[in-house]
Design goal:
By secondary structure, the chain is an alpha+beta fold. It has three domains: 245 residues, Alpha Horseshoe (Serine Threonine Protein Phosphatase 5, Tetratricopeptide repeat); 159 residues, Cathepsin B, Chain A (Alpha-Beta Complex), CATH 3.90.70; 160 residues. The strands form two sheets. Strands 1, 2, 3, 4, 5, 6 and 7 form a seven-stranded antiparallel β-sheet that branches. Strands 8-9 form a two-stranded antiparallel sheet. Helix 8 runs parallel beside helix 10 and helix 10 packs antiparallel against helix 11. 45% of the residues are buried. 62% of the residues lie in helices and 7% in strands.
Length: 590
Amino acid sequence: MRSALSSQRVSVGLLLAVVVVTLASGCSTKVQRLYRRAEAFFAQGEYELAAREYSRIVQEAPRDPLADDAWYKLAYLYREELDNPSAALIVYRNLADNYQGSNYVDEALFWIVYLQRRYMQDPVAAVATCRELDQRFPGKKNLRGQAYLEAAGAYLDAGQLQQAYELCRKITDDFTDRPQIAAQALLMSADITDKIGKNPRQALALYEQVAEKYPDTQAAVTARQVIGLRYYVEKAETEKARLAMQRQQARVLDNVPPLKQYPGQPAMELLAAIHSLLRQAGGQISMDEVVVISGLPFTLTFAVDRPELAQVFYRNPATAIAEEMGFGYNLWTSATPAGLLDNATSCLLQDRPLLVAYGEENAHWCLITGYRPAEKELYLLQPGAEHAMKLDPQAFLDVWQTSKVPALWPQGALSGFRFALTVRRRPADTAATIKSVLLQSSLAWQQRELMKQPAGSAACEELVKLLREALDARNTTSREQLKSWASTAIPLIISSRQAAARFFAEPPPELLDEGNISYWEVSQRYEAIVAAWQELSRQIEEAPAGTEPSLSEPERAASAEHWQQALEQAQKLARIEPETLRWLASSLAE
């Protein structure tokens, strides 16, 4: 259920973007100050403090324009982060009853149903809320269907099988134009019939109906598995059943775009894989736009002994980009072989590749584009390859289970990380997305730590500090550390800034229509930032690590000059990068 609900959870970035734009102009009220403080606590993971500030808003100014937003986020915190479902239920109910014009009411009613099932175990109340959702939001058919499935699950959880069965059949009849919902309800009907155990043939007929009527759904995959097992076990043909099932599960996708290779840059390779997923799913988007939406060009992390951290994200780029582009997604982190093969089968039958990290030493981001169980062939598309390579599934799994997933964002990808896009739920809004990303990035730059290392302005300060120490020719350790860091880290930093400069040089037409900002100037500023990083790299590269006794006085002077100029370049970057982000945020808020 967690993956199915992913796209319905609070999208903090989008909501924050709207609010920041609103609050940036005009005088700041007390409510607005409380809201900004709540948002800051939320972003920092201080959920109890955030909940306290949202509560103050709804108690002190219940009719303020920000009140319904505060109610919704407060309910989310109680539900997901503070383990207080009863409080969440009260807040959602208040939002639904007292803010009828709010854009959050439909989802609030859905979450009420969810909580009535999961925590109240009250199927009657869940059905009543579903009917309220019908009356108030007849056009929200997908949401209504998901709510009724929750209500049917509530009956099932309570052991009221007949009521669950009747509701499932009603869902199947009422949502025939929503195959995913109708198929899930019909599958639940089959499961209930099977659980009752009085008519195995009827249960089997229902499973067959799921597979035949809704062949391209996840419910059909499950139904086919049940059908195959039942049918062949009855005939004592277990091996034949296994082969038949495997042939049904076989699928190889030939429409997956190649992944561009970025040697030594795992973050860019991850974005290239996400770019391929989006294009295969029909998303019209360039690689440069993917890089910009990820927020990578607007972050900086400094650790002189860990140069790879120069290219990390402040959030999970896979889920963030999917949400910004309007796609649903599934995310798994179990490292079991059976789980991976089941996920791969499910995704491929939905014509979706599966993103995984794979490699014996340094794992690369790759896509599983095909699986033929009967032939023992798994198809893996790797960075830089034109076509997917065929692997023995067991040989693949032996490597995959021991692959070290690159740590690219806080609470990063766990062992067994797998990601796939699902259906597109809404069209992409490029202008709103870019505004959201830039505003979030401006806030992220103000955070002084990322991956437990100096970030944003603090990263600039640490770099300048180390360069000052390197001015002393006797400090050979600092010089050697900086030279090693620069050779690896600065190319990583430059690649993302170059992508931003290219993207803003030729932005999509819908972005140009927004008006409030000169994107040509944005491009020029990022070209200047790229040039400054390139100059810093050159000065550090050409500067000697120490002062040899055999060096002449002019050579020693030249060495000192290189380190001095490197320091000045770092000081320049410490000024222009945050200035550019502040300017962008200010321009977007006008």
